[in-house]
Amino acid sequence: METAISVHKLRKEFRGRGKSIVAVDDIDFTLRRGEILGFLGPNGAGKTTTIKMLCGLVKPTSGSLLIGGIDPAANPRKAMRKLGAVLEGSRNTYWRLTVDENLEYFAYSRGRVSSDFRHRRDRLLTTLGLAEKRTELVQKLSRGMQQKVALGCALIPDPEILLLDEPTLGLDLQSSQAIQQEIKRLADQEGKSILLTTHQMEIAHALSTHVAIMNRGRIVVQDKVKNLLDVFSLGMYTIRVYGWLPAEERTWLEARWGAELDHDESGTTLRVPLTDARQLYLIIEILERHKLLISNIQRLEPNLGEIYLKLIEEGPVEATRFGA
Amino acid sequence: MKQLVLALRAEIKVGFAKTVRYPVQTLTSVLVLYLLFVGVFYGSRSIAGVVNTPSADFARSATEAIAGYLLWFFALIAIDSMSQNISEEAQTGTLEQFYLAGWSFPLMLFLRFLSSILTSLVMLIPLLLLLSLSTGVALELRFVDTLPVVGLTILGLCGFGYLLGAVTLLFKRIGNAMTLVQFGLLFLCLPPVEQFSGPLKLIALTLPLTQGVKLLRRVLAPGSEIIGAGDFLLLILNSAAYLLVGIAVFRWAERLARDRGLLGQY
Ligand SMILES: Nc1ncnc2c1ncn2[C@@H]1O[C@H](COP(=O)(O)OP(=O)(O)OP(=O)(O)O)[C@@H](O)[C@H]1O
Ligand SMILES: [Mg+2]
């Protein structure tokens, strides 16, 4: 199974009292095995609606979706067995039961109990750091622990695909990091395919192999995180040298290269956008000609957060050139 | 099939865990149910000006009341597990996970209902004992005769549960309305249906309980008569109708809820 999720022309229109909202507007995307797809977008972009359509909780208006190659409309049970989900803003677990009872319930109710169930449960409790809390009521646990239990409940039936809708929402740094580590481990070591939504860009940046950015029901861009970073880094370099360039050289650099130059008492800082590494050598040549010693060259890495904001502000038209 | 048994096991285990975890709540329920019976039964008798001395007549009407009460108890379970429970889970955000198990939704609810019936025996047995002790009526449970009647009635109640469940899916917060339904049913199924007249009789006759209550009374009454095939057939028809209509309406509501995004929180 290569593609975990594939979505084609998926659309959801909510109709109600005269007006209708297009929550998801003919989107296409794929999640491949072992990937973590960061599913990003501002409030109301349509992320949760998409996830709910994947789990069968919301009926698509049109379009198709396949879960592990299976059409859930035709074969819901088989498709659902491949899915585990932690949904946004929900408890996802029974608070009046203990951690153990929850895990057992979710394994049994999905009919996923094998002879090594106990062993698997214990291992899961240990990796999630819940071993000591197993006999406590979920109600009495901290928010972070509760979220771990929710993750555990999604994992206990051993699904191939995980849908995580804001899994770190409202968690403190420590709990958030623990969940993040677990998500990373699940993809890297267990080969799970994960769809993850979050508003925390550092988290998306740290975890995702791929991103799909959604805005107003549409996917603005979908690509590998690495490609996006490359495209957007556009080779912005800062070069710091000891000494100063003559005025005509400065104006030429500014006019020809779009460079920005700052000088102070100890030297000059050049900020120059380069599309190609050879151009860097040309600049270095100029600097050498004037016997300016280079003290530092740095390529500025953009982060996912900046790219995200840029794409959301510029909208899909501008962004399609990066489209996958 | 094996997976279905596992799922049922999961529901039963959870049901028992909750009953045992909150013993005070369970005991209170038994007590409230007991007091309610006493209040309604003796209350209505004293309004009617009947003397409550041990007699054949008293034993007969107490037995009849208990039979009605027993089936009403199962109606409570149906309303609770198939409607109030959905509403609660939708609000706390577990309904989605329940749904994600991937069984057909009506089937999942049936499992839950079945497990609620089984777990409710923890309450039902002491309740019946209390009722029997305090009225001085020795209930002969004669399972061979009572089980088919109770079983069929429960199936009809299940259909009734689907109907209410459908309403709950679409309107979510319906706690008060359901409490009203529960008590409405109680007043319609404690007195013998023959005592009603006019529209009330019509309502009583179309309820999922009426036929079952009527037959159960006959079975349990001292010196009981054999139930005729016609009466039995009527019970089967009544329950089957409720079940079929209930499932159909529930499926329709489920489709609508999925279309409007009402399953779970929004
Ligand atoms: N059941 C519903 N009925 C009507 N409109 C809905 C329903 N669910 C979602 N919407 C609307 O669809 C749009 C997309 O909502 P959705 O919850 O999918 O966004 P989101 O990307 O998850 O946002 P957030 O980041 O705030 O969670 C919103 O305009 C929302 O109001
Ligand atoms: Mg959302």
Helices and strands in order:
The complex is a heterodimer of chains A (324) and B (266).
Chain A: E1 3-16, E2 19-32, E3 36-40, H1 47-54, E4 62-67, H2 76-80, E5 83-86, H3 99-109, H4 117-127, H5 143-155, E6 161-165, H6 173-190, E7 193-197, H7 201-207, E8 210-215, E9 218-224, H8 225-233, E10 236-242, H9 247-257, E11 260-264, E12 267-273, H10 277-289, E13 293-299, H11 304-319
Parallel strand pairs in A: 3-7, 3-8, 5-6, 6-7
Antiparallel strand pairs in A: 1-2, 1-4, 8-9, 10-12, 10-13, 11-12
Helix pairs in contact in A: 3-5
Chain B: H1 2-21, H2 23-48, H3 56-92, H4 95-100, H5 105-135, H6 143-171, H7 175-189, H8 198-206, H9 210-220, H10 229-260
Helix pairs in contact in B: 1-5, 2-5, 3-5, 3-6, 3-7, 3-9, 6-9, 6-10
Bound molecules: adenosine-5'-triphosphate and magnesium ion.
Q: Can you offer a commentary on this structure?
A:
The complex is a heterodimer of chains A (324) and B (266). Chain A is α/β, with parallel strands linked by helices and 324 residues long. Helices cover 38% and strands 28% of the residues of chain A. In chain A, the strands form 3 sheets. Chain A has a 6-stranded mixed beta sheet, sandwiched between helices. In chain A, β8 and β9 form a beta hairpin. The radius of gyration of chain A is 25 Å and the shape is elongated. The C terminus of chain A is likely disordered. The model of chain B has no long low-confidence stretch (mean pLDDT 85). Chain B has one domain. Chain B has 10 helices and no strands. Chain B is globular and about 60 Å long. Chain B has 266 residues and is an all-alpha fold. At the A-B interface, β1, α2 and α3 of A face α1, α4 and α10 of B. The complex binds adenosine-5'-triphosphate and magnesium ion. Magnesium ion binds next to α1 of chain A.
